Amino acid sequence: MQALAPDPEQPEPHPQPQPRPGPGPNPPPPGHINDRHPNFRDEDGRLYLVRCFACAPDKGFENYVLAVARGVCAWCGWREATGYGG
Ligand SMILES: [Zn+2]
C-alpha cells in the first residue's frame, strides 16, 4: 500500500473566478420579491430594502431610510425572514 501524497512540484490549478450575481435592473431571480434593484446586499448578505416590491410590484414603493438597513418595509411590514409581515 502506498499513500498518494501531493506533489510539491505541481502547483494546484487555480479555480476559475465565477462572476458574482449582483443586483441589477434585470428581472429578479426566483428568490423573493424584494431581491432586486434598487435593493442590494452587503458583504454579509444583509438586504437593504430601498424599495418595497410587496407594496408596489411594478416600480416598488420607497421605504423609510431608517427601515432600509433593517430590511423591513415601513409600510407593509415585509421582511426577508418571513417574506411578508410578521
Ligand atoms: Zn411594503
Features:
86 residues, little secondary structure, two-stranded antiparallel ribbon, two-stranded antiparallel sheet, 4 strands, 5% helix, binds zinc ion
Percent helix = under 10%
Secondary structure tally: strands: 4
Which of globular, elongated, flat, extended, rod-shaped describes the shape?
A: elongated
Overall pLDDT level: 81
What binds here, in terms of ligands, is: zinc ion
Class derived from helix and strand content:
little secondary structure
How are strands sequenced across the largest beta sheet? 1-2
Calculate the terminal CA-CA distance, rounded to whole Å.
60 Å
By DSSP (H or I, 4+ residues per run), the number of helices equals 1
Tell me the quaternary state. Answer: single chain
